[in-house]
Amino acid sequence: MKKSFTLYAFILLVLINVFTYMFLSKEVEFEQNRYEKTTKKLKDSLNSITTKLNDANYFSLEKNENAQNYFDSAIANKTIPYEKLIPVLKEKLMDFNANPKGNPYVGQDQIGANKFVINKVKVLNHRWIIADYSDGKMWGEVLLKYFVNEDESISFEVMQSLLYAQ
Which residues make Cβ contacts (< 8 Å) with residue 52, sequence separation at least 6? Predict the structure, then answer.
């Protein structure tokens, strides 16, 4: 009886070890496959987002080499690094928001109690800027021309302004 119990216990332990080994080896394989699939999905998502970001920034001074060359050109006598110009343009344009009648470069007169101020600015190339503006109730967009003068001051000109219907 003791010998058969020992034999049955030994066989049971061998079976438990075999099943445990098989389970753990399959679990490791399963986790590796899951990790590879997740990594592939993340890489695909990252590539997709990078492509979308590049498409969104296609019309920007940061990505437009022809527009960048305008500021590096010896013909134009301008050697302004565009990396420094973009924040200066945005800051100068936003400074006009302090005007009591609103930013004069939105192309709209004050309609209600609130003044129009510029919220977002994107420098498209060496000549154009697009900006979003609002008075809290109404929103619009404006296309501006900008010029870097000989004395490195900056001037703006409204090309077109659009106010969305409420």
Answer: none
CA 72 to CA 80: how far, in whole Å? 7
Element holding 29 (H helix, E strand): helix 2-56
Under-70 pLDDT residues of the chain: 72-79
Asked whether the beta carbons of 142 and 158 are under 8 A apart, the reply is yes
Between strands 154-163 and 128-134, the pairing is: unpaired
pLDDT in tens, 3-19: 788 888 889 999 999 88
Q: In terms of DSSP H, where are the helices of 57-162?
A: 65-72, 82-95
Asked if 110 and 135 count as a contact pair (C-beta separation under 8 A), the reply is yes
pTM check: above 0.70: no
Q: Tell how far CA 156 is from the center of its chain.
A: 26
